[in-house]
Sequence to fold (120 residues):
Amino acid sequence: MVQQLEEQLGKFDLTLGRWCVLVALKSSGRAMVPSELSDDLAVTRANISNLLNALEKAGRIRRNFDPTNRRRILVSLTPEGHEIILNVWPVYEQTIFQNVGNKLTQEEQNQLKDLLKKLF
Fold:
């Protein structure tokens, strides 16, 4: 399933790691410091830095100084970041259902779909 997700996400110039960063930012509903993202996604600080660099270069996130503490950097989604989530989510959801759906009853599939929709 991970390989299929990577293939589908690659069509949008995303990796699974970059996608997870975007979803984490969207789910939080606020700007986050890189260490929060690192902790939430259980990746190293170096790895989160590389993911953020790629997303920033693609225009999907921005990093700004925290106005209350200029030693902290805040990461937030750009309008392009929000848009890519809207475009990719149906593909992501479909890939999950194709790989998980045949292992679940129809009722369980509906419940999973409702839970995934609740995230957004």
